[in-house]
Amino acid sequence: MTLLAEFLSIVQPWRDVFPQQRTFVRGVRQALGSLVCLGRRCLTRIIWTNGGQNRSWSAEYFLHSRCRWEPQHLFRPILQRALTHCPQRLVGVALDDTRLRKTGRSIPQAFYQRDPLSPPFHVNLVLGLRFLPASLLVPLHRTAAVGARALPIRFEEVSRVKRPGKKATEEMKKQYLQAVKQRNLSRSFVQMGQQLRQELDLAGGGEKILVLAGDGSFCNRTCFGEIPERSVLLVRARKDAKLCFRAAAGSRRFYGVEKFTPEQVRQNESIPWKTTKIFYGGKRRKIRYKEVAGVLWQNGAKQRPLRLIVIAPTPYRKAKSKKLYYRDPAYLLTSDLRSSIKQLLQIYFDRWQIEVNNREEKDTLGVGQAQLWNVTSVPKQPVLAVASYSAVLLASLQAFGAERGKAYAELPKWRLKARRPSCLDLITLLRKEMAQQPELLAPFGFTITDPALVQAADARENVETPGLDKVERNSVEDRAAQVCSHRFSPRTP
């Protein structure tokens, strides 16, 4: 089965998400266009890619502003099929907040927030949208010598509550303070965890334990206070968090008097270091850690017992002849007191794949570049693009397996051997199959009218084909650069 045929098979259940057949066709057409589009992923470019530049564009915009459909339901068939690749009892789901930059001042959900790329000595602000994504961690290292693959299964917009003006009454200010407590990032994390537990049950994973893996921003009282049933929380903690044990039996106190921090546990020589192997960076590596069970965090988790995991700094070299450097240690807190430490550590190390998703979605696929300002369209169009990205990742797993096989374009000699296909490899193969199998696109009205799409796939394949001399390679690279720098910016209706 080809990548395109498997992709269309995965998105076929989207028919139940959209109210009509024509809106379903339009949604799949935009999903494919957002993947293979050249240049910026504006909605006008996506329409041009679909071959709709000569017809009215109103219906394409109305798909997000007027058509009633739940965008998060697009991930249901993806989760149901991807769950077959997760045979273990613990199912890891990585969560992290991300930002989509915007420049329009008429977008109600956009607000100024801290730029994570700003230097540590100067905090910069950026105007944009805030989303809370969740990705299913598929442990491909169980069957192949490749790292885990993160499949997005949630992408919700988390807007900030607008602060009242100077002329606001006391009642309006009280309502604002109440709204801030109910609509913040931690509260959205709790609600998403409950939704993921329900979706996992609907997908047939009722007997599996959901592991919500997050960073330090979700290590707080709100997230630890409302963990869904049959779910555990695994987050990174501060090194100076005040922890303690349960008070001695017969005492009227619940918390012990003696306090300690994760950093003190790391420096305590009476607690021995343990060793296990984790698949990370292409091979299994030894990890040193300490474990302290039954700890209490009065300010963060109240009376819920937790387990503290301290990961030792990992040595590395910038070159073989250079000295050893050490990364910072990691401190983890989890509500799981019974599962294997090795499985929890593997999920924590695999959590990095959600950062790969965020980079590919924004840099490669241009999620958030569509120029929409309607209050309903703004949070829906990025979800459609992310769902199509997740579907093509799952399609590659089911069609060709986890490793990078012969179906993809050959790598150049100067590039190191890749063990799994990249997002650009999938897009290149998808463009090629769309040009070779137009009969699969006929039911969706997808017509490739721009020859640059076909030329981009052919140029990419020729550039990565070894055996060309320097002159031929330079000419092919120039042609690929000209094709991929294709510019078309029609007027937005």
Structural overview:
- Strands 1, 2, 3, 4, 5, 6, 7, 8, 9, 10 and 13 form an 11-stranded mixed β-sheet that branches. A two-stranded antiparallel ribbon has the order 11-12.
- Helix 2 packs across helix 3 and helix 14 (451-463) runs antiparallel to helix 15.
- The protein is of the alpha+beta class and 493 residues long.
- The protein has helices spanning 3-11, 21-36, 43-49, 58-65, 76-82, 170-182, 185-202, 221-225, 262-267, 341-350, 353-364, 377-400, 423-436, 451-463, 470-484, and strands spanning 90-95, 98-101, 111-114, 125-138, 149-157, 209-214, 231-236, 274-280, 283-295, 306-311, 315-317, 324-326, 330-334.
- It is 36% helix and 17% strand.
Quickly describe the structure.
The protein is an alpha+beta fold and 493 residues long. The chain contains 15 helices and 13 strands. It has helices at residues 3-11, 21-36, 43-49, 58-65, 76-82, 170-182, 185-202, 221-225, 262-267, 341-350, 353-364, 377-400, 423-436, 451-463, 470-484, and strands at 90-95, 98-101, 111-114, 125-138, 149-157, 209-214, 231-236, 274-280, 283-295, 306-311, 315-317, 324-326, 330-334.
For this structure, what is the CATH class of one domain? Alpha Beta
Terminal-residue CA separation: 39 Å
Largest sheet: 11 strands, mixed
Strand content: 15-25%
Please write the string of helix (H) and strand (E) elements: HHHHHEEEEEHHEHEHEEEEEEHHHHHH
Number of DSSP helical runs: 15
**What is the CATH topology classification name of one domain?**
Transposase Inhibitor Protein From Tn5, Chain A, domain 1
Instruction: Output the radius of gyration.
Output: 25 Å
Mean pLDDT: 87
Total beta strand runs: 13
- Under the CATH scheme, which architecture of one domain would be assigned? Alpha-Beta Complex
